[in-house]
Amino acid sequence: MKTTWVLVADEAIARILAYGKSKTLEPVEELTDPDAHANSAEMRRDAVGRRAAGGNPQAGATASASEDPLLQHAEVFSKRVADVLGKAQQQGRMDSLILVAPPRFLGLLRKALPRNAADIVQAELDKDFVHFTNDDIQARLRQLEHLK
């Protein structure tokens, strides 16, 4: 029987589950990003920038206001998760892949997935199931006919 991996993730947690011979979702691995839990005040503390000589704050070099530190951390985390999936596919640990994540993180995952893992994506679901039990996830995926 083919093994399908189900990635259930958000910008802080990625749960990898396997669906195969047992016909139930079994945990494979869980990845977390501790930086995703930092509050915005902690993130801004390091973004003050340098000040020009003479103390003129207007002349200093600062980070662009459009740079979102939380988005940057999410991008790094998505690449880490994508690397794990790519290596697992190379090792023959999965035959197909289902991605379940909120829309923004799902988009980051799509960009980060190596071709070998992207080629075996069976389905994508733009939902946040990361805190659901394995049984709840399995029931929802069966309802949508993603798990047979």
Automatic annotation (TrEMBL):
| Residue ranges of the region described as Disordered | 30-67
InterPro entries, per this entry? Answer: Host_attachment_protein
* Full protein name: Protein required for attachment to host cells
From which source organism is this entry? Cupriavidus plantarum
